[in-house]
Design goal:
This protein is 29% helix and 13% strand. By secondary structure, the protein is α/β, with parallel strands linked by helices. The chain has a single domain, classed as Alkaline Phosphatase, subunit A, CATH 3.40.720. Strands 1, 4, 5, 6, 7, 10, 11 and 14 form an eight-stranded mixed beta sheet that branches. It has a two-stranded antiparallel ribbon with strand order 2-3. Helix 13 packs parallel to helix 14 (338-362). The two termini are 23 Å apart.
């Protein structure tokens, strides 16, 4: 279906060094495309129209969340469709969401739901590539996207306004995402990436974007976002005094300008402090929750306040073994009991997301920070029972999905679009998923007709289809 037309206390140097991950040799010698090269490009970047006061937090439900059990409930549908949960009213007349999110229901005036997006790709990585780039991939199950994801496009467009913190940060690489032909200089800065997240493996533990303390506490960057342990050991030897120098002098006078900015951006106090949740008061930490969701979203807020312009974080949750084997939202019957999984994770989701929305508002930055919760697609309206235990699940469904939005200077307190009575397809305000990308690009001030050259020299526009969602703008 075609879219409708107006569709940041310093930490000790030894602790920091144990975080690892920044190769001075690579930055200085140009061993791979790197952040210093990105910064150097500012000289020739020219005048930009991009907004200087807008950021995005993408809380990514990898695997695909069920629209029918969250934001587009169908209580009148047959039992094999409607699921276990009932809808509840919100503080906005006519808007209902799942009963599992009572706190969010009391602040519906501060969020919007788009119920009528769709696309054509039903594979996890293929769907991720399609959703985050706006283009269908040739490969179905691809580890790395064939086109640049939205965060990489934003990082590219921000060359002329990049300051002292990475513009694009993620907890790990998504399956089917990446900078593609823009090159690894535009990949996200990742504190503790797990390479398994960019494969079909869906049984890895939640990956922190916050400083976790312990064996997984690492800040790293390389052409793939991950350095080997050997390179981290080399780092201990070669950069032992770097954070101390930065703390004492605030600069690295022996390096040329672009290399110095790259290292200061990644090793400097502003970036390190942004990941340090100990700098938050206990009341705030408790409001978000001492959970993966809570600590992730609190860190996301700290990152955008420090100047990061695009933060993406997987919304993962470790289920009890009797509930499911995955930590994502791929709720096939063979992976989890979908309703028990939601009973476990939605209370934490309700607490942490509502805390973020409230926090952004209280701190006066809700108009400048857009929170987005979605996944690569929705789930099948009709329940399936493929596991030998006969527990319920839902399968992949790109023909309909819901997207949850809050802040960003957009119009909140509304639902846009509708699906049919069984949640199978959009029937009102039918929109390609590119319309969401177009809306975000519009808010950033990015011209989606701008093109970038592929490795073969072919110019590819940022988007060729999709219009900003006028009801939001």
């Amino acid at each position: 279906m075609a879219p409708q037309t107006p569709c940041r206390g310093p930490i000790g140097r030894r602790t920091w060094l144990q975080l690892g991950g920044l190769s001075l040799g690579a930055l200085a010698t140009g061993g791979f495309p790197n952040l210093s090269q990105l910064l150097a490009m500012e000289q020739v970047g020219g005048q930009r129209t991009i907004s200087k006061d807008f950021s995005v937090i993408l809380f990514w439900a990898n695997g695909g969340p069920s629209h029918l059990d969250l934001f587009d409930m169908k209580p009148q549908a047959p039992a094999e469709y409607r699921g276990d949960f009932l809808p509840i009213r919100t503080n906005v007349p006519g808007i209902e969401i799942t009963e599992m999110m009572p706190t969010l229901a009391r602040m519906a005036d501060k969020f919007a739901i788009v119920r009528s997006l769709h696309h054509e790709r039903a594979e996890h990585s293929g769907g991720t590539n399609r959703f985050l780039t706006g283009y269908p991939s040739r490969a179905a199950n691809l580890n790395h996207s064939e086109f640049p994801e939205i965060g990489s496009i934003v990082a590219k467009q921000l060359e002329a306004v990049t300051d002292s913190i990475p513009p694009f940060v993620a907890n790990t690489k998504f399956y089917g995402s990446g900078p593609a032909y823009l090159g690894p200089a535009y990949a996200p800065y990742m504190p503790s990436p797990n390479p398994r997240s960019s494969t079909g493996d869906n049984r890895y533990d939640p990956i922190p974007i916050y400083r976790a303390g312990g064996s997984n506490d690492s800040l790293s960057i390389s052409s793939d976002g991950l350095l080997t342990l050997n390179r981290r050991r080399d780092l201990l030897k070669s950069l032992d005094t770097l954070p101390r120098i930065l703390d004492q002098h605030g600069t690295l006078p022996t390096l040329d300008g672009f290399q110095r900015r790259a290292i200061e951006m990644l090793a400097g106090r502003r970036t390190r402090e942004a990941f340090d949740l100990s700098r938050e008061d206990e009341t705030t930490r408790q409001r978000y929750g001492e959970t993966h969701f809570g600590k992730s979203l609190l860190t996301c807020r700290r990152l955008v306040e420090a100047g990061v312009r695009f933060v993406q974080c997987q919304a993962e949750y470790r289920l009890r073994p009797e509930t499911g084997v995955t930590s994502n939202w791929d709720d096939h019957s063979v992976n989890s009991h979908i309703f028990n999984a939601y009973r476990e994770k939605l209370p934490s989701f309700d607490q942490s997301v509502s805390a973020l929305i409230e926090d952004l508002d209280v701190r006066g930055i809700s108009k400048h920070v857009l929170f987005v919760f979605c996944g690569e697609f929705g789930r099948t309206p009709k329940l399936s029972y493929g596991d030998s235990s006969r527990r319920p699940g839902r399968d992949h469904w790109p023909r309909a999905m819901s997207v949850f939005l809050a802040g960003g200077g957009l119009r909140m307190g509304q639902v846009i679009g509708a699906t049919n009575r069984r949640g199978e397809e959009p029937v009102e305000r039918i929109m390609d998923s590119n319309c969401l990308l177009a809306t975000i690009y519009e808010r950033f001030g990015i011209d989606t007709t701008a093109s970038y050259l592929t490795n073969a020299g072919r110019p590819i526009p940022i988007l060729t289809t999709g219009h900003p969602i006028t009801e939001l703008l």
